[in-house]
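Q: Hi! First time doing this. I have a protein sequence and I read that you can turn it into a structure. Is that right? Here it is:
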Amino acid sequence: KGNNGLIKTKYLTFGIEADGMKTAKPRLERIETDVLNNFKRLGVAAEPLNAPDRESNRAQSPPAGGHHRL
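A: Yes, that's right. Below is the predicted 3D structure, encoded as structure tokens:
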């Protein structure tokens, strides 16, 4: 919780270079597991998002670094 009882949500996106999906998928899954375990060790709630959830959040978020009205 932040100031005035507001809950702050932040998103972390990561990627890798790979020759194809066959090699990328297991590496990305290991990285995801490591990241989640590190957040858990820090006492931070974290959960992975699937593609529809990511797209929904992206559509509702203001552009990064852009100016927007609230």
